[in-house]
Amino acid sequence: MKEKQDFQIFIISRFLVSLIFVVLSEFLIWFATDWLKERFDGGVSLAVFVIGIVIMVIPIVIGSLMFSKALMDEVHRMEQQKEELQSVYEKKRNLMLSDIAHDLRTPITTIAGYSKALNDDMVISEEKKKEYLQAIENKSARMSDLINLLFDYVRLDSENYGLRKDEIDLPELLRTIAASLYSDVEEKGMEFQISIPEEVHIVSLDRVQFSRVIVNLINNAIKHNEAGTVIGLKMQAEKDRIKIEVSDNGDLIPTFLAEQIFEPFAMGDASRNAQCGSGLGLSIAKKIVEMHGWTLELKQYYEEYRKSFVIEIK
């Protein structure tokens, strides 16, 4: 939509420039013609008249050529930009497919190895059999979660997908989400600080998808921090915008990772191998927020917390 608006603005501006050029040129020619008439006492030969007509047409032709060239240059620039964006998209997609294969390979190898060991009666101990079966179950669940996340990511990225928005009381929705996750925070030995206004603030949003965003951000804080961490959920309503902050006072995110935190599989191999997450959750969260027309940013050393994911609704 923005590219279309920019192109329309460009066309109008270049047309106006060309039109101004033609009008000024015609005015100068008219002035010169009027001067010639006075010089020759109103009598102008046919040749001079023809030359005058030709001269008057020239600015129109030049103006049209200027407009056409500017239009062709802009179309060429937009095509080049589109090709560059497509190239970047292809590289990211290939990298994502490589990371998916990497993340699936480990559990598949484990499941295959343990299944073969059990099938070949290589495991005698009942305790060891249970351990192998539990590992198979865990790895299968890990694969299922990853495939579901990947499906969600692709579905959100498709052109046919659209949000189902309703008029929702945002503070009430946030309180409901916080209540559902309160026990998870306590079980991890963390403190949950909630600051949500009592006033009603109606916002048009997709309840299911936006709830996923908040749940994902809070779950990330639970998974990636130690016991004793303070997690904050805060909503601030101002005149022309609303800010939702999911914060914690845990470890900072390294700069190199913070810069690409919302890219698919940005967590890095070490984090994924440790089963801390797939790296797709934050990418999905950002996509959902942007589909609503809002922004999601990571801010470190934010207010009284060390890091915060901030959603800004305008």
Number of helices: 8
Outline: elongated
Overall radius of gyration: 32 Å
Number of strands: 7
CATH architecture of the largest domain: 2-Layer Sandwich
In the CATH hierarchy, the third-tier topology of the largest domain is known as: Heat Shock Protein 90
Tell me the strand percentage band. 5-15%
Low-confidence stretches: 268-277
Describe the structure.
- The chain has helices at residues 2-39, 46-119, 126-157, 170-187, 207-223, 255-258, 269-273, 281-291, and strands at residues 166-169, 191-195, 202-205, 230-237, 242-248, 295-300, 307-313.
- The protein is built from eight helices and seven strands; from the N terminus they run αααβαββαββαααββ.
- The protein has a five-stranded mixed sheet with strand order 2-4-5-7-6. Strands 1-3 form a two-stranded antiparallel sheet.
- The radius of gyration is 32 Å and the shape is elongated.
- The chain has three domains: 2-86, no CATH class; 103-157; 166-313, Heat Shock Protein 90 (2-Layer Sandwich), CATH 3.30.565.
- Strand 6 and strand 7 (307-313) form a beta hairpin.
Question: How would you briefly describe this protein structure?
Answer:
This protein is an alpha+beta fold and 314 residues long. The protein has helices at residues 2-39, 46-119, 126-157, 170-187, 207-223, 255-258, 269-273, 281-291; strands spanning 166-169, 191-195, 202-205, 230-237, 242-248, 295-300, 307-313.
